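SAMPLE LOG
Freezer: B-3
Tube label: C17
Construct: single chain, 114 aa
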Amino acid sequence: MHGLAHALSLHTGAVHGLALAAVLPEVVGWSLDAEPAGWGRAAEAAGLPSAAALPDALGGLLEQVGTRISLADLGAGPAQHEALARTALADPVTRNAPRHPSSVAEVTDLLAHC
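STRUCTURE (predicted):
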């Protein structure tokens, strides 16, 4: 269900887990409206009050384990966002996501928050 997060992280050139850490909270937040029941179950399983709490909870967990980083920390700053967005959109794994980006601009906008 995290196809977009995986597609974005695979193409950063960084260690996969760290690259996921850089994008996952933001991708989850961006995806919440697409699958409210599923995200609600995930929040309940995590002991959170609502799905809206998931991105902050993920960010907090990453902070606790010392892996809350940005794409820029991984060498994928704003100058690389358009290429990263194009590559992620072309990657078939992106289809395995609750919300599908419709354009490069939509993904680059998301990446600006990572």
